[in-house]
Amino acid sequence: MLSLLAVGGAITTVPDMHRYLVDERGWITDPQFSASVAIGQAAPGPNVLFVALFGWNVGLNAGGFPMAFFGAMVALVGCILPSTTLTYFAARWGHENSDLRGVRAFKQGMAPIVVALLVATGWILATGSSYKTGDWPSGRSRSPRR
């Protein structure tokens, strides 16, 4: 499901992956998570390799090397297949209808969303396990103390 939200690339889904894999399920540790992202980004090739490393670590923690290989393949195919299929058909449609105002507006409106997702990814990676959603201001006005 997250691969369909990867508007600015797979790296923009890292905050939600962290929430699910580390905080909610506890399938991998915070150091394993950060190391997977760092290795996936530093390795030559596509930057989506960190998803395979997540699967590798989950499989390794669950049952050793055979499960690690299986986890890496399942995670990578699960991340690449839906987004690749959607991108192919959306790009064909967008190219055929590039003169429509709605298509141009959509392209321009996606830029700030991608920037926000990249900032959120940087925030998660920089704060590590000290990240708490309660630290964010809620935007609600507080009544003055009396």
Overview of this structure, please?
The chain has about 150 residues and is an all-alpha fold. Helices cover about 65% and strands about 0% of the residues. The protein contains five helices and no strands. It has helices at about 15-25, 30-40, 50-65, 65-95, 100-125. The relative contact order is 0.13.
Structural class by sheet pairing and helices: mainly alpha
Envelope shape: globular
Pick out the low-confidence regions.
Answer: none
**Span between termini:** 48 Å
Q: Count of DSSP helices?
A: 5
Helix amount: 55-70%
Number of strands: 0
Largest sheet: none
Instruction: Report the radius of gyration as a whole number of Å.
Output: 18 Å
How are the elements arranged and paired?
Layout: H1 14-24, H2 30-42, H3 49-63, H4 65-96, H5 101-127
Helix pairs in contact: 2-3, 3-4
Main features:
single chain; mainly alpha; 5 helices; 0% strand
Brief summary of the model shown:
The chain has helices at 14-24, 30-42, 49-63, 65-96, 101-127. The protein is mainly α and 146 residues long.
